[in-house]
């Protein structure tokens, strides 16, 4: 797990898809094949969002 102040790669969503508020990283968990699971909370609406960032050789697949 990474520190919550980890700088997000360009592939990770930075605004809430619901209200366009800023997303704050809650947790980053390492996954298989170099993937990372980024859990974020919107500072405006409080929604929880998950982005899955795959290894550097593959394109990211954001999920909300």
Topology:
Layout: E1 23-30, E2 36-42, E3 48-53, E4 61-63
Unreliably modeled segments? 1-5
User: What separation lies between the terminal Cα atoms?
Assistant: 20 Å
Tell me about the biggest sheet?
4 strands, antiparallel
Helix vs. strand class: mainly beta
Strand content: 35-45%
Determine the fraction of residues in helical runs and give it as a percent range.
Answer: under 10%
Rg calculated over all Cα atoms = 11 Å
Mean pLDDT: 79
Walk me through the structure.
The protein has a domain of 41 residues. The N terminus is likely disordered. Strand 2 and strand 3 form a beta hairpin. Helices cover 0% and strands 38% of the residues. It has 64 residues and is mainly β. It is built from no helices and 4 strands. The protein has a 4-stranded antiparallel β-sheet, with no helix packed on it. It is elongated, with a radius of gyration of 11 Å.
Short description:
The chain is mainly beta and 64 residues long. Helices cover 0% and strands 38% of the residues.
Features:
64 residues; mainly beta; four-stranded antiparallel beta sheet; 0% helix
